[in-house]
Amino acid sequence: MISMPSPLLVHQLRSGLPRLQRALAAGVVRLGFLGGSITDQKTGARWPEPVLAWFSATFPQVRLIVENAAIGATGSDLAVFRAARDTLSRDCDLVFVEYAVNDQGTPPVQRRRSREGLLRQLLAEPRDVVLVYTFMQEHHADMAAGRAPASVADFETLASHYQLGSVWVGLHALREVEIGLLRWEEWLPDGLHPEHRGSLSYAQAVIALLQRELLDTPRSNAAPAGPALPPPLDPFCWQNVSQIPYADIARTGPWTERRWGQLNWIDQVLHCTSPGATLTTRFNGRGLVAAFDFGATSAEFRWRIDGGEWQLSERERPAWAGPSGWFRPTILAEDLAPGPHTLDFETTRGVRSDCIGCTTDLVFFGVIH
């Protein structure tokens, strides 16, 4: 193991946690989590669980409400369209944001825009936000050389701009491995996801920040929020987004609107099992995203904006995804001239060998304003 140079820090303390302090004093705390499978609560073995256990033991008199809205295999490009329903409407006092791993493969400009849009949504009113950086194998070479991987460095640029604290839990765990407190296979049994022991290591780094900010040396300085927010680093960040109502989407073919019980985070879908079915809609914005309940049985589609050239989707279907159950977004357009546009969308039969069906379960068309 190559020892990492010292400049890399597990904790970056910028603002305090004043809203959380007030909530503790009032006796009711709402903690929110946004992230991917490393934060998802489904297994009961991820890092939020020891954090919540510490919270309950440390503040037994407090009513603790948990809003874990993390979803496996999703990134900040989906979170910007979910934040209003799954986090902002829950009025969380503190939100942990964990996307350094799941945004790794996203083009840098896109991930910076979606992340900054998400943070500006969270900070539209006073709220404590802490960024959490987990680990994947692709990060190791940079970390061993004393560098922050690009996905982490991009987040730190935003954290500095918005004065947000951050916890590099992956760095904490890797340092435990270096000194023999943690075996690699205990940390990441499948190479990516910590189970109980690795999650405890991640949680200990988060707990250390909470211990300092709530008990040892609490600070009252808040991150800028609302009208006090600084200008965005990227004026094209995805702060202002919306979803097109189903009623505004014209259809040909056997489409139905359905309540959706297969995924907790999806209320309804536009459902169709026929190739050649079409959707047409108008939108006013500069970008468009389509989100699906996706898997091996999903159809592909083609689309065009404003009557231009047709573009064809050809999405990979990893074996872990199953026949359906992956809440997956696809960017249809990102740099349009602001203003009114038209979308034409048509279902097609996928040609890849991993495509074994022709079902379309469209959750939403999301507009970037």
Structure characterization notes:
- It is built from nine helices and 17 strands.
- The protein has 369 residues and is α+β, with helices and mostly antiparallel strands.
- The chain folds into two domains: 11-228, SGNH hydrolase (Rossmann fold); 241-368, Sandwich (Jelly Rolls).
- The strands form three sheets. It has a six-stranded mixed beta sheet with strand order 1-6-5-4-2-3, with helices on both faces.
- Strand 9 and strand 10 (268-272) form a beta hairpin.
- Helix 4 runs parallel beside helix 6 (150-162).
- The chain is globular.
- The mean pLDDT is 96.
What labels describe this entry?
alpha+beta; Rossmann fold; six-stranded mixed sheet; 2 domains; Jelly Rolls
Blueprint (SSEs and pairs):
Layout: E1 11-12, H1 18-26, E2 28-35, H2 48-58, E3 63-68, H3 76-86, E4 94-98, H4 108-122, E5 128-132, H5 140-144, H6 150-162, E6 165-167, H7 169-178, H8 184-187, H9 196-216, E7 241-243, E8 249-252, E9 256-259, E10 268-272, E11 278-285, E12 287-294, E13 300-305, E14 311-312, E15 326-333, E16 339-348, E17 360-368
Parallel strand pairs: 2-3, 2-4, 4-5, 5-6
Antiparallel strand pairs: 1-6, 7-17, 8-11, 9-10, 10-17, 11-16, 12-15, 12-17, 13-14, 13-16
Provide the CATH superfamily of the largest domain. SGNH hydrolase
Q: Termini separation (Å)?
A: 47 Å
Radius of gyration: 21 Å
Q: Which strand-content bin applies to the residues?
A: 25-35%
| Largest sheet entry | 6 strands, mixed
Q: Mean pLDDT, rounded to whole units?
A: 96
